[in-house]
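ARCHIVE RECORD
Type: protein–small molecule complex
Small molecule: adenosine-5'-diphosphate
Source of inputs: curated submission
Record status: active
Notes field left blank by submitter.
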Amino acid sequence: METRIALYPGSFDPFTLGHLDIVQRLSPLYDEVVVAVLVNPAKHALLSPQERVRSIEESLSALPNVRVLCSDRPTVEVARAVRARVMVRGLRSVTDFEYEMTLAAGYRYMAPEIETLFLPARPEHGSISSSLVREIFALGGDVSMLAPEPVLAALARHTPKGD
Ligand code: ADP
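STRUCTURE (tokenized, with ligand):
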């Protein structure tokens, strides 16, 4: 039987409780879930790719069928490389929906054999985003309600504002 593999791609800068919830819900649905930290070298990131991978791995250590990788390749290439049949995206709002529909259309042109699957965010996670975490962190605020413990530890090694 074919192994059912799902790819969950994102910037994850940083990984939040909303992202964590999506992976926890996906894990029982697939044989394997691959979380892909996609790196855009042109974009300044708060956490390095290595910090992101490590903190995500630690956040997901209880889920044996989940692995984390990092890539600077296009999402569909990563999906093909890991033999994923679906790419999963989370939806929080109508704004996400419009953006994600366009993205999914692009993915379909590039890789018609791979499906995009949307999972709705839990209502209580609807306003959690990586950018919110970055903004609050830059202002020296408390982000402990927004991200898992290993991510908070990675953030703590950075000084707010900048580096
Ligand atoms: P991007 O790949 O656009 O940089 P992110 O790394 O922020 O996006 O997020 C990766 C995926 O997780 C996206 O599909 C995004 O919509 C989804 N997502 C982000 N925040 C949440 C949340 N709070 N709950 C559920 N899904 C989310």
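CURATOR ANNOTATION: Residues 10-12, 16, 18-19, 22, 89-90, 92, 96, 121, 125, 128-130 surround adenosine-5'-diphosphate (CB under 6 Å).
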